[in-house]
Write a structure and sequence with these properties.
CATH architecture of the largest domain: Alpha-Beta Barrel
Oligomer: single chain
Number of strands: 22
Radius of gyration: 24 Å
Number of helices: 23
Shape: globular
CATH class of the largest domain: Alpha Beta
CATH topology of the largest domain: TIM Barrel
Low-confidence stretches: none
CATH superfamily of the largest domain: Metal-dependent hydrolases
Mean pLDDT: 95
Largest sheet: 8 strands, mixed
Strand content: 15-25%
Number of domains: 3
Helix content: 25-40%
Structural class: alpha/beta
Length: about 575
């Protein structure tokens, strides 16, 4: 390797134990690889004759690593022409959502269907919105659909039902795994439950509401880069997404490296999948589901929900569901793992409940022993883990299992979790981050786009202060240190993606993926991190990313090349 670029910053936070701080870094831009890190004098000695690019007061860090996301879907349902109406996007109440719908109906071109995403009935205190509730919000008579933030329901107005052409406005027979809400006379009430039914109402509308889904996906890519992310994943991959990710990764200014996890429910999930640029996009593993969503109430827990106005309004089954909340029996899980483990892929289980975590660990231990992998460096994963306990993290670590945590669950819902959804003993400990660190599972942080904005500095601040968006503290014992939070957002995420030898820290021989910050995170008070530290830009493989150029190149791609992308992306929405 021959360095042709030297970057000097006010300080470089390397996230490498052997050399935590540096002054300069030398890069071979032809290979995108770091050649030397250290003092400016040391780096210049390793790269003689190379001009120094002085970044001034900029602080350089390894780019943030988001190990669990859904970029295509996130872009489609959050970026224009779709409307992101989640409570944390400026719509805290049902009244705000109603106002947004009326405004969009008044301003959008006549006849164009509208797509809204992010209704949270618990946080926004919304009713179950039937077409009777939605029709007055769209007086123009256009078709409109609102997606629940959980991904488990879609709500449509009468114009959408007419667009679908259902005779006498009566929905078809319920598909396997889904259902339609019906009035006493058999007509649709405007609600579709679960993906099979949601797709039947979304299919004809999506191409009209989101005419260029690849552009929407690119805008989510650019959004992630604006928060300092340089590597991410697609945690619900299916082959219908292949061409889209190929197109995005082929664009010169693509800002993200991508790692896909093939849905176990796909017929071809065993298949080897490769892309021309494996450094940019590759298949990592298999995605499986243990249970559902805490906001819907279909998670496998040993405890129940509290009975009150909020949980009743959300129509949550109080439970506890225990193993009835599992998507599969233990025998079925064993069979699924036996199908995929011999292929050598990483396993990744969606799991929120404590009972679910026990079942997953039982299945993992059985499969590891059965296939001779106990003690190996397999790095099988478990995702989300809202209700996980310290002893479960300890057991996971002993099996070599790593955990990707969802701090957003606590940050946005913590005030409800503690005392409204669950008893304080349970709710205050939701997302037991410090327990995960102490147990040694090398936890990462993720945002599960588009369940929450992928804002790492915001997440880090709230994890260190253990505050919710209201500023309240619940379970102060689960606060983490700044160093732990930064590790969870960089090197630990790289470890979970099995790429810590290439990304996640600034070290010689690794890829030159950086985030530029306006100030040193270690030099500000934890509760002032967002106010005093801004993301200035990112580098990928030694090249500074130009988001505008990236978006312009994707905009120029003919959307007709990806006619089924919208439906395929929504079909993959199985996380929460």
């Amino acid at each position: 390797m021959t360095a042709d670029l030297i970057l000097k910053a006010s300080t470089i936070i390397t996230m490498a134990d052997a050399q935590p701080r540096a002054e300069a870094v030398a890069v071979d831009t032809a290979t995108g690889t770091i050649v030397a890190v250290g003092t400016l004098a040391d780096v210049q000695a390793a790269a003689p004759g190379v001009d120094v690019t002085d970044l001034g007061q900029t602080v350089l860090m390894p780019g943030f690593v988001e190990p669990h996301s859904h970029p295509i879907l996130s872009g489609m349902v959050t970026q224009s022409p779709a409307y992101w109406i989640a409570p944390y996007m400026g719509f805290p109440t049902w009244a705000d959502v109603q106002a947004a719908c009326r405004k969009a109906d008044a301003e959008a071109p006549a006849g164009v269907p509208l797509l809204f995403n992010g209704l949270d009935r618990l946080l926004q205190q919304a009713p179950l919105p039937t077409r009777v509730d939605l029709d007055p919000l769209f007086p123009s008579g256009r078709a409109a659909v609102i997606l629940d933030n959980s991904g488990h329901a879609a709500y449509v107005n009468t114009a959408t039902i007419d667009l679908l052409g259902w005779p006498e406005r009566k929905p078809p027979a319920d598909p396997v795994g889904g259902s339609f809400g019906r009035n006493p006379d058999g007509t649709s009430n405007g609600v579709a439950y679960e993906l099979p039914a949601e797709l039947m109402v979304l299919g004809p509308l999506l191409p009209k509401a989101v005419p260029h889904p690849l552009k929407s996906a690119a805008e989510w890519y650019a959004s992630m880069a604006s928060f300092g992310i340089t590597s991410t994943s697609e945690h619900t991959y299916g082959k219908s997404q292949y061409d889209a990710y190929l197109a995005l990764s082929s664009v010169e200014d693509c800002p993200l490296r991508l790692h896909v996890y093939h849905m176990s429910t796909e017929a071809d999930a065993e298949a080897e999948v490769t892309w021309p640029k494996p450094a940019m996009v590759r298949k990592n593993g298999i995605k499986l589901w243990a249970d559902g969503s805490p906001w819907v109430g279909n998670i496998a827990t040993s405890f129940g929900y509290l009975d009150n106005d909020r949980t009743r309004a959300a129509q949550i089954e109080l439970g506890p569901l225990a193993e009835k909340g599992m998507n599969y029996t233990r025998g079925e899980l064993d069979a699924i793992l036996d199908r995929f483990v011999p292929l050598g892929y990483q396993m990744a289980f969606h799991c929120n409940g404590d009972v679910g975590f026990d079942v997953v660990l039982d299945a993992y231990e059985h499969a590891l022993a059965r296939h001779g992998l106990l003690g190996s460096d397999h790095r099988w994963r478990v995702e989300h883990l809202g209700a996980a306990r310290r002893d479960q993290f300890v057991r996971a670590a002993s099996l070599g299992v790593t955990c990707s945590m969802s701090p957003f669950q606590y940050i946005y819902w913590g005030d409800l979790l503690d005392g409204t959804m669950f008893t304080s003993e349970i709710g205050s400990q939701w997302q037991a981050l410090q327990d995960a660190f102490q147990a040694g599972v090398r936890p990462s942080f993720h945002h599960d786009g588009a369940v929450s904005p992928p804002d790492y500095l915001f997440t880090i601040q709230h994890c260190v202060t253990r505050t919710t968006t209201s500023g309240a503290v619940h379970g102060a014992n689960q606060a983490v240190t700044l160093d732990q939070a930064l590790r969870a957002s960089t090197i630990n995420g790289a470890y979970q993606l099995k790429r810590d030898h290439e990304i996640g820290s600034i070290e010689a021989g690794k890829l030159a993926d950086f985030v530029e910050l306006s100030a040193d995170p270690y030099g500000v008070e934890p509760d002032q991190l967002v106010a005093e530290v801004q993301v200035l830009g990112t580098w990928l493989g030694g090249h500074r990313i130009d988001p505008k150029a990236f978006l312009a190149e994707v905009q120029a791609i003919d959307p007709s090349e990806h006619p089924d992308l919208a439906a395929a992306a929504v079909a993959s929405k199985k996380c929460c």
